[in-house]
Amino acid sequence: TQQISRMLTKLFQRARLEKPGQVDTRAAEFTLGLLVAMYDRSGTGYVKIRSVAAALIALSGDTLLAKYRAFFQLHAVPHGKAVSITRSALRSLLTDLNQIPGIVGETCPLSSVEIATHDCFHGVLKSAIVEEKFLSWLRSEPPVLLWLPTCYRLSATEMVSHQARCR
């Protein structure tokens, strides 16, 4: 957690330089607290970097497609001539991502991670899938991750303004 704290401090310092007055001075502290609450419930002081990376990608302001591609890159491994993601890597990613709604009391049963993994690999004979199949499955908005596109849409509409006037 100390390494993550230093990394978050640097990250938010850069963000404050890019967007003066828009980034809280305690952002790194709050983000670390959130990450520890999600991924170190037993208080060991250790958090998997891959879990932190997945959470930061999910909570970023990037587009859904950019997030999905980053998730793939985070968990993909060379598989023959292609780069692909295995069932166990997908299961790990989904488990990590489900900690995010879980922290606010929106728990998802572990069985839904298994169902989602099965759905993603439906009709696949190999032990891993390529990025195209992974992205296609995510675009179908699997129930286990429905919160992600929903949060993205809510965030995207915050900046919308209409020139309509009401009486």
Automatic annotation (TrEMBL):
Domain of life: Eukaryota
Stretches assigned to the EF-hand domain: 65-154
Any GO BP: synaptic signaling
Alphabetized SUPFAM superfamilies for the sequence: EF-hand
GO cellular component: plasma membrane; synapse
Transmembrane portions of the chain: none
Family matches, as Pfam families: EF-hand_3
Matches recorded under PANTHER family: DYSTROTELIN (PTHR12268:SF18), E3 UBIQUITIN-PROTEIN LIGASE KCMF1 (PTHR12268)
Name used for this protein in its record: DYTN protein
Naturally occurring in which organism (per UniProt): Formicarius rufipectus
